[in-house]
Design a protein that fits this description.
The complex is a heterodimer of chains A (196) and B (293). With 196 residues, chain A is mainly alpha-helical. Chain A has a single domain, classed as MFS general substrate transporter like domains (Growth Hormone, Chain: A, Up-down Bundle). Chain A contains eight helices and no strands. Chain A has helices at 2-32, 36-60, 67-81, 83-98, 102-122, 124-132, 136-168, 171-194. Chain A is elongated, with a radius of gyration of 17 Å. By secondary structure, chain B is of the alpha/beta class. Chain B has one domain (67-290): Rossmann fold (3-Layer(aba) Sandwich). Chain B contains ten helices and eleven strands. The radius of gyration of chain B is 19 Å and the shape is globular. The N and C termini of chain B lie far apart (40 Å). The chains are: A mainly alpha (196), B alpha/beta (293).
Chain lengths: 196, 293
């Protein structure tokens, strides 16, 4: 039960990260265009944020790791994603006015919008490894399974967003769905953590 | 007998091969320059039947080879003497060159995303920037947003940015069209070369009508394009259009533009599904919609 829950949460985290990344390019296009450097900015910010998230997540997992704390990461991710809906436009307008070059404009805007939620979502991976590993001999297999599950989530998040979600919903609606999913996942994690 | 028939059909349907005189892959697209008889074309995909290419006939360099380019000039019926012209999308430079010949004193600004297209237009299509005609290499959306802060307004805007198969989706939303409308003078005219088929036709039509109200919708049976002509003020009636056409017949003759036909047939009839979703910055899956019947 506990294992399955952690896998489901890791899958959901992976899904949200890539859905968010794809929406990133969409959100920036009206202000900075959709040229290769805009995607360059988005991908750079996500990679950088994930790398920091992995690092921080690993350290955080040192101190009394639990499913409840793991679930708290999802709440934090949701809380940091929601402002995109509220303040995204204003922020991009400000950056657009301050920075003439759309390369650096998109880099700054992507950082301001996506860095914090992505760092937190990046913390999920090492933290889930910590929760699953019970013996050193099994650690590689456990980590491998978790990478498998979360990257599969990322693949599905990419596909779902680019093929269907943008055809059905507005960007803000999708962002709210992602926020809601993170909260739901947190709820599941917390509930399972409280059991027995 | 059967073999002979098959052979004949094969021979008849084999296209005369156009000579490839230039090809390059830019940051954004493939650019091909082909020549067949005297007609030289800029194409953006290798596929033969693509909806949008830009051609010049070297024997009659003024003649506009494609119906959409001729239809775009119907915008002149609403303003026969534009002095500030904005063109979004350079292609082979057909429209900018025609307008610079028709209005040598007008100021023409062209916004083109791909620097390679500018080079090819200069080298193979006789596009020559001058004091009156300038080209800016920038994303049209970014340019339009910056231009809002600029006092300059245009009495004619031509949107011709959809080359080849891929639509830049941020150039087909209500917000972008509002920005373009904002750049028009109070009685300015906007002409847009866009799509006549697929589900996108409906979404695009409701989007234009949301921003501009009624607009002229020009279609031609031999093309998958349609041209939208909209204005910031009320549109003229047929009598006024026909009157304006009289003065344009002579100047437009070398370009092969049947301006009187446009004047008498142009109408604002809404033949689309009015319940289609408006395209916005929040909802703009134009390329997905284009793929749906």
């Amino acid at each position: 039960m506990r294992r399955t829950t952690i896998n489901v949460l890791a899958f959901g985290g992976g899904f949200v990260i890539m859905a968010l990344e794809l929406l990133g390019g969409r959100v920036l296009a009206p202000y900075f265009g959709s040229s290769i450097y805009v995607w360059g900015s988005v991908i750079t910010v996500f990679m950088l944020s994930l790398s920091l998230g992995y690092l921080i997540g690993g350290y955080v997992s040192l101190r009394s790791p639990s499913l409840a704390r793991f679930a708290a990461l999802f709440v934090a991710g949701a809380v940091l994603t929601y402002p995109l809906v509220l303040y995204g436009e204003q922020l991009m307008q400000t950056v657009f006015e301050q920075i003439e070059d759309p390369r650096y404009g998109s880099l700054v805007a992507a950082s301001a919008l996506f860095m914090l939620p992505t760092i937190v979502l990046g913390m999920i991976s090492p933290y889930s490894v910590r929760l699953m590993v019970t013996e050193t001999a099994q650690s590689g297999r456990v980590a491998g399974t978790l990478y498998f599950v979360s990257t599969l989530g990322s693949a599905l998040g990419t596909l779902a967003t680019s093929f269907y979600l943008v055809l059905w919903f507005e960007i803000d609606t999708i962002l709210l769905l992602l926020t809601g999913s993170l909260l739901a996942l947190a709820g599941v994690g917390y509930a399972v953590g409280r059991m027995r | 007998m059967r073999i002979a028939l098959v052979l004949t059909v094969a021979l008849l349907s084999t296209p005369v091969h156009a000579r490839l005189i230039h090809s390059e892959t830019s940051l954004y697209q493939n650019i091909l320059v082909t020549e067949e008889d005297s007609v030289r074309c800029m194409q953006f995909t290798v596929r033969k039947l693509q909806r949008n290419q830009s051609c010049i006939d070297q024997r009659a360099p003024k003649r506009l080879v494609f119906p959409y380019a001729r239809m775009m000039l119907a915008a002149l019926l609403l303003d026969p003497a534009p002095s500030n012209i904005l063109i979004v999308g350079l292609g082979g430079g057909t429209l900018p060159i025609a307008l610079s010949e028709l209005y040598p004193n007008a100021s023409i600004e062209v916004v083109e995303l791909d620097p390679a297209v500018v080079v090819v237009a200069k080298r193979y299509f006789g596009f020559e920037p001058s004091e009156h005609m300038q080209v800016v290499e920038q994303d049209a959306r970014v340019w339009a947003k910056r231009a809002q802060n600029n006092p300059k307004r245009y009495d004619l805007i031509m949107l011709d940015a959809f080359n080849g198969d891929y639509i830049p989706e941020h150039l087909m939303t209500r917000e972008y069209l509002s920005e373009a409308r904002e750049l028009l003078t109070t009685d300015g005219v906007l002409a847009s070369n866009t799509f006549a088929i697929s589900r996108l036709y409906h979404n695009e039509s409701v989007t234009y009508s949301d921003v501009f109200g009624p607009f002229f919708n020009l279609k031609s049976p031999d093309t998958a394009n349609r041209v939208i002509i909209a204005s910031r003020t009320a549109l003229p009636d047929t009598a006024k259009l026909e009157l304006a056409a009289k003065a344009l017949v002579q100047p437009l003759k070398p370009y092969g533009v049947p301006i009187e036909d446009y004047a008498s047939t142009m109408n604002t009839r809404a033949d689309w599904d009015a319940t289609a979703r408006i395209l916005t910055d929040q909802y703009s899956p134009a390329n997905l919609l284009k793929g749906q019947p």
